[in-house]
Amino acid sequence: MQTKFTGPTDSQWQYIEKILEKEQGKRKRHHDLREIFTAIIWLTRTGVQWRNLDSKYPDWSIVYYYFNKWSKMGILKKLLSGLVVTERIRQKREPCASRVAIDSQSVKKVSFISLESGIDGGKKVNGRKRHLAVDSLGLPIAVSVTSAQVHDGQGGFELLWQVEESSDRLSTICADLAYRGEFSDVVENVYRWKIEITQKPESKQGFVPQKGRWQVERSISWLNFFRRLSKDYERTTASAIAFIQLAFCSIILARNPTIEI
C-alpha cells in the first residue's frame, strides 16, 4: 500500500488511456485525461469534497463530469476487470478465478444520504452495506452496494451474475454462516458451484483467519486506507460502487508501476 499518493506512471497511463480510448473514442480534447484521472484517484484517497479539489487539478466540475461519465458507461468497471486479469497473470495465475470468497461490510452514511440506506440491526450501523467477491489474491471480482438493512444472503445475489460473467472456470464460493439457506441453494442448484460455509469458533475472540475466506476480509480492510470510503458520502449507490472500484484500481496500480499493455 502506498504511504504517499502518487499519480499513474507513464506505462500505467498508457494502459489506462488505451482502455479509455477504446470505450469513448480517441479525439482531441480540451482537458488532459491523465490529470483528470489522477484527480479522481487523489480524491478517492484523501476524501475531500468535490468543490475542495486541489487547484493543481482541472476544475472540480470537469473532474466530476468525467467521473460520472466513466461510472455510467461502465468504464471504471472494465478498467478494474482488466487490471485484475493483468495482476493475476503477473502473479502467475490463470486470468480467470476458479474460487472466490464473499462477504459484506456495513458502513455509516453521512447525514444528507437518503437513497437506498437503512439500519443493520446486528451491527447497529445506519447506512449502506458493501458486498464484495474476491479471488484467492484478494482482487475484486464483483462489487455491489445496498441498504445496510439488506441481509448478506439477499445482497449476495447481485454478486453471482457478476462472478459468472467474469469467469468461466469458477467452481467454489467461500462464505460465512450468513449465506446459508436460499443463497446457498441458488449457488448449488442454479449456478452449479460448490459453496463452502465456514465460521470462526464462538470461543475465539477478535480476528481469526478462516481458510478460503480471510482474503475477502483483508480486501475489505484495504478500503480503510481510502478516506472517501471511511463512510458512505455518495448520494447514489452507483457512485459508491465507482469509488470502491477506483480504490482497488489504485491498489493494483501501486503493486505494478511498470504495467505492460
Entry summary:
The protein has 9 helices and 6 strands; from the N terminus they run ααααββββααβαβαα. It is α/β, with parallel strands linked by helices and 261 residues long. The chain has one domain (10-255): Ribonuclease H-like superfamily/Ribonuclease H (Nucleotidyltransferase, domain 5, 2-Layer Sandwich).
Word description of this protein:
- This protein is α/β, with parallel strands linked by helices.
- It has a single domain, classed as 2-Layer Sandwich (Nucleotidyltransferase, domain 5).
- It has nine helices and six strands, in the order ααααββββααβαβαα.
- Strands 1, 2, 3, 4, 5 and 6 form a six-stranded mixed β-sheet that branches.
- A hairpin with a 5-residue loop joins β3 and β4.
- α4 packs parallel to α9.
- The two termini are 22 Å apart.
- The mean pLDDT is 90.
Radius of gyration: 19 Å
Number of domains: 1
The arrangement of helices and strands along the chain is HHHHEEEEHHEHEHH
Q: Low-confidence runs (pLDDT<50, min 5 residues)?
A: none
CATH architecture: 2-Layer Sandwich
Q: Give the tally of β-strands.
A: 6
Could you state the oligomeric state of the chains shown?
Answer: single chain
- The proportion of residues forming helix, as a percent range, comes to 40-55%
Write a concise keyword list for the protein shown above.
single chain, 261 residues, alpha/beta, Nucleotidyltransferase, domain 5, six-stranded mixed beta sheet, 6 strands, 15% strand, globular
